[in-house]
């Protein structure tokens, strides 16, 4: 990495090697999907370039110990098609506004707002529960992880088969455990922070998650941010600052706190865990099928969250209210959070962890809109300005002129060879572009 000292390079390589992020190929680790059925979100095509897996006696593929056999000529044909597609896409005469004319940009904006609305809904349901003295942060999230397991685990078993699934557990289960642990603890400490500090302070500290994402992406994933991207992030943060300032002026987002120092430390820890887990999940979904990532996140998340709820939420059950309304709020909370977790991988593929976190800054705006209807809040005049600033910051972030945006991941190697050809990935876009231009057929013939 240019500009790094030898010590920093050695440290980075050691961390990557420990997590299995360095020097891995899709063929060796089972990350790359060579057939159209490997990712439930893959666009089906009839081209042979994406149908590389078949049975051929005598040549066993080391793919989690399964007996899948791979044709090297078909794999080479797919690689050639991807290379041709990427070359065709990146050689286009693009302008500064070219990416804004793509469906990817508008999907990222739309999906980001859906995620923000999901967060707003979960916060609203949590407020309803807190209003009737039902404070069970770990237990109420347990249902989300259970639902992720119920929906995505059967799909994973059907796609992989029990033997391959067991091999994945033995070989990479510890990585999924780390991802789940970071996610569960990020949720827990962020919610816990609101018990001790005021909301204004906690939300200001949550900006730290964006700093963590940018820093980790730069050093571990070799992402290089342009000045316009940094400017876009700063403008988004400025818009969020206006939201917090207006809340402080109106007195709706500050107030006393029982232990500011403890609450702020919990918020800082939660934001750090969120940032790390978002980067880790982006790495996972760019290499693995979405259903696999979500199924393991559900399995390990349910186990970790269940133990945590049994330890820390037991006393909260005594004073909690249990009736039909509470059950309805828990169902609403679970469904909104499940939708959030199911959509998040798509925006992480099409964009990045940084785009993901920046998009969520608009959640505060939607929270106030809901608050005016449900809790009787009064909208301050700064709110519309802040929302426009956040959206403008997102637009400026994409002023790079690249038609692929952030979907082309630098850690996936040349021509994205280590990535999965799933929906939203640069690899699938390249394959589709190659087929559209007739380049895939020529690549197959050359191979």
Give the helices and strands, then pairings.
Blueprint: H1 6-19, H2 26-29, H3 72-90, H4 103-131, H5 137-160, H6 162-196, H7 199-205, H8 208-219, H9 227-250, H10 260-287, H11 290-312, H12 314-318, H13 324-350, H14 353-359, H15 363-374, H16 382-397, H17 426-436, H18 439-446
Helix pairs in contact: 3-17, 3-18, 4-13, 4-15, 5-6, 5-11, 5-13, 6-10, 6-11, 7-10, 8-10, 8-14, 9-16, 10-13, 10-14
Transmembrane segments: 96-116, 136-155, 176-194, 200-220, 227-245, 265-284, 291-311, 326-348, 355-375, 381-400
Subcellular location: Membrane
Keywords: Membrane, Transmembrane, Transmembrane helix, Transport
Secondary structure class reads mainly alpha
**Total number of helices:** 18
Main sheet specs: none
Helical content (DSSP H or I, runs of 4+):
55-70%
Shape: globular
Task: Report the β-strand fraction as a percent range.
Answer: under 5%
- The separation of the N and C termini measures 33 Å
Low-confidence stretches: 1-5, 21-38, 40-63, 65-70, 442-447
Structural account:
The chain crosses the membrane at residues 96-116, 136-155, 176-194, 200-220, 227-245, 265-284, 291-311, 326-348, 355-375, 381-400. Belongs to the SLC35F solute transporter family. GO terms for molecular function: transmembrane transporter activity. There is one protein chain. With 447 residues, this protein is an all-alpha fold. It has a domain at 121-340. 68% of the residues lie in helices and 0% in strands. It is built from 18 helices and no strands. The protein has helices at 6-19, 26-29, 72-90, 103-131, 137-160, 162-196, 199-205, 208-219, 227-250, 260-287, 290-312, 314-318, 324-350, 353-359, 363-374, 382-397, 426-436, 439-446. 47% of the residues are buried.
